[in-house]
Amino acid sequence: MNDNMVLTQRRDGVIVITLNRPEVMNCFNFGLLHALKAEITQIRFDTGVRVVVITGSGDRAFCAGADLKERAGLSPTQVKEFIFTIRDLFTDIETLNKPVIAAVNGAALGGGTELALASDIRIASKTATLGLTETRLAIIPGAGGTQRLPRLVGKAKAKELIFTGRRIDAAEALQIGLVNRVCDPDRLTDTCMALAAEICETGPVAIEQAKYAINHGMETDLSTGLAIESNAYWVCIPTEDRQEGLTAFREKRKPVYKGR
What's the predicted TM-score (pTM) here? Predict the structure, then answer.
């Protein structure tokens, strides 16, 4: 049963998704993966959602990675299915047509760090710890960690962290660029919601196209990236929102964007 494994709360265009397995530090089993997948799929086509915030239940963990008790009972084929499922899910999160903020409220280990890496922005509590710890279990990160971490913090630092399986605190994560901001634990939700509110003031189509251009342009040479940016810009030109932005600027008022 996937009931209550994922909790959601909506407010002013922002949906907060909470991984809800606090008794096992919000670690991923098949049930949680499928529940989160269902939410992300639904959100993709929900025009009322502008920003997604993902966090963990309780104050101990964001997500401690895979449920190793479940893993111990899986056949090699089932392990492959698990890895395919979690990697596919995190790709869906990375390519979601809305900004995703990871509110890292505690331990984010293995797949927990990989979930944060798949998000667009990472804000961590001062009590958070992060790490791709898989090599200590004689495996490697399998949900994108070997690819996303070096793109974010550089190849040498990523190799150091993955080769050692070392956990780092929030301060070091900020220093190396793994997280965007660090705040007091009791300010984490407010900090994420304030950032989400800023994003909600912008044009929905523009945000979708900007995310697309950044994600896809970064994986190409500069010339191709510029072409991707141009095509994304062209999508914005005929929109009602662009005209509303110009009109609001001229009339010295806040624009009211409708995503069309």
Answer: 0.93
pLDDT tens-place string over residues 206-249: 999 999 999 999 989 999 999 999 999 999 999 999 988 889 89
Q: Is 65 a catalytic residue?
A: no
Catalytic status, residue 259: no
Catalytic residue among 56, 65, 110, 111: 111
Structure tokens at 12: 């002013």
Catalytic site residue from 56, 103, 114, 143? 114
Q: Each residue of 101-127: pLDDT tens digit?
A: 999 999 999 999 999 999 999 999 999
Residues 6+ apart with CB under 8 A from 68: 27, 137
**Known catalytic membership, residue 134:** yes
Q: Please, where are the H alpha helices in the chain?
A: 30-44, 68-72, 76-94, 111-118, 145-153, 155-164, 170-175, 188-200, 204-217, 222-236, 240-251
CA atoms within 13 A on the CB side of 50: 21
CA nearest neighbour of 13 among 259, 189, 241: 259
Identify the active-site residue in 61, 66, 103, 143: 66
Place 260 in a pLDDT band, splitting at 50, 70 and 90: confident
Domains and CATH numbers, the chain: 6-200 (3.90.226.10), 204-251 (1.10.12.10)
Helix then strand then coil, % of the chain, to nearest 5 = 50, 15, 30
Biggest alpha carbon distance in the chain?
64
Active site residue 111: yes
